[in-house]
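Reopening: structure tokens for the biotin complex, inputs below.
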Amino acid sequence: MLVTPLDSLAPERVAELLTGRFGHPYVYEASCESTQELLAEDSPEGALALCDEQTAGRGRLGRSWSAPPGRAILASLLLRPPAERAVSELSLVAGTAVAEAIEGEVGLAVQVKWPNDVMLNRRKVAGILAEASGGAVVVGIGVNVNQERDELPDDANVPPGSLYTSDGIKRDRAPLLAAILERLESNYDAWLERGLDGVYDSLGSRDFLRGRRIALDGESGIGVKIDRDGRFLVDLGGEQRAVESGEILFER
Ligand code: BTN
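Re-run output (same inputs, fresh job):
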């Protein structure tokens, strides 16, 4: 008899938990270079690729993304939004879904740091990478679940954390994966129908940079908010600026 360990993310453990549209088909490999490369171009919307280990995981802005085998959720979801829709908004839609799902799991407030980070106790516990190609968008999701402190990257630009380093609990990853996909499906549907307004209540109330001292391209200022077009508004010495893309650092 095949005995599946509790914390496996292999299909035989996860399939029964995936009750919505997302996660079908479920492409699983124990190890891969990057889940962003695993889905075929003609995959249907909702297809998910997941690996327990990535040998060349990537983050935004040309960075790498690494985690010891079996400790994190490393997944890529294929979406087919209408061509005219802004792909950058999908990072916020997905980040909000991940924040909501983690919040349900840890019972602590979880925030979204514009444009793609998920923050718990001022540490980055998850990141989103939305890449468009050939009419599809592959939304990569990396969640630090069970890493110990010394298993997190020490060269990260935003201080990293895991759910484990925040509350000392080692978790089964499968229910968290299922919750992320469930929240993502409902947020994506709301976004398809109403744009960012569809998720704005949840996103706006989780806006990590709002009211914080920030630095933008060497200038200091105060974070104002994520606006309803997905930009981040900053106040630089009394002058308000809308940032469309890139990265905003915060003062600890
Ligand atoms: C970031 O914060 O810079 C985005 C990180 C995205 C990481 C995930 S892990 C699963 C998927 N595969 C990758 O190679 N990257 C994304």
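The chain is about 20% helix and 30% strand. The pocket of biotin is lined by residues 34-36, 54, 57-60, 63, 65, 74-76, 116-117, 127-129, 140-142 (CB under 6 Å). Marking as resolved unless the reporter disagrees.
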